[in-house]
Task: structure prediction
Amino acid sequence: MLKSSLGKKYVMSITGQLVCAFLVMHLAGNLALFAGKETFNKYAAMLEANKVLLYAAEAGLISIFLLHILTAIRLSLGNRAARPEKYAVYKASGEKRMASGTMIFSGLVILTFLVVHICQFKFTPRVGDTPTIYDVVQSYFAQPQWVIFYVSCIWVLSTHLFHGFQSSFQSFGLNHPRYTPMIKAGGALYAVSMCVGYTAIPIFMYLGKGG
Ligand code: HEM
Result:
């Protein structure tokens, strides 16, 4: 089943929804930056306190991201290979083809963002508590080029979330004249909330309005 195109779409949907849940938790935690250095560092220390739980959560997160990315690659390669026959029986609408092209582009931008982001915030060399995780975040968001980088990438991420949210429900056959508009509205609300929440952090910290 997982080798079929439908099975792969299920994997994309489930892993995508798990990433959506992670993004809500990550944002909620990062909003502690507005409460100040002490609060944010306490929050970060709490996350790191239980090493077993931390490594298990990180392993889960990496697996989810990898599964999502690898399945996306396999799906798009599969679609490409099947294209000659596909056109004979089913013509993808212009809108559908454009959306999947955009998803690949935004996905690649997010992947690049993640590599940079994790190198900056997770693997910055620190000796004990110097610099603290708050200092690391603050030092990047004091530089306009990084604020622009983060805001642009989060904007692209939001377009990915906007389309991905609704298509994850469609993969499960939830396509109904009554519920589809509600799912679309939910996806829009989710994507806009993530966009506003995540972009507020670098902008406000740059302006010196962080905690
Ligand atoms: C302005 C927005 C953001 C801030 C301030 C921020 C902050 C951080 C910080 C401080 C860490 C390191 C945590 C630690 O070492 O304990 C981190 C890790 C991480 N961030 Fe973000 N982040 C932001 C946006 C994002 C976005 C948009 C994504 C996903 C697309 C993301 C995904 C991750 C991941 C996957 C990790 C590694 C988690 C781990 O291994 O524990 N972050 N982030």
User: Anything to note?
Assistant: The domain at 5-206 is CATH 1.20.1300.10 (3 helical TM bundles of succinate and fumarate reductases). The helical segments are 5-30, 37-49, 51-81, 83-89, 94-121, 133-140, 144-170, 179-206. The two ends are 50 Å apart (CA to CA).
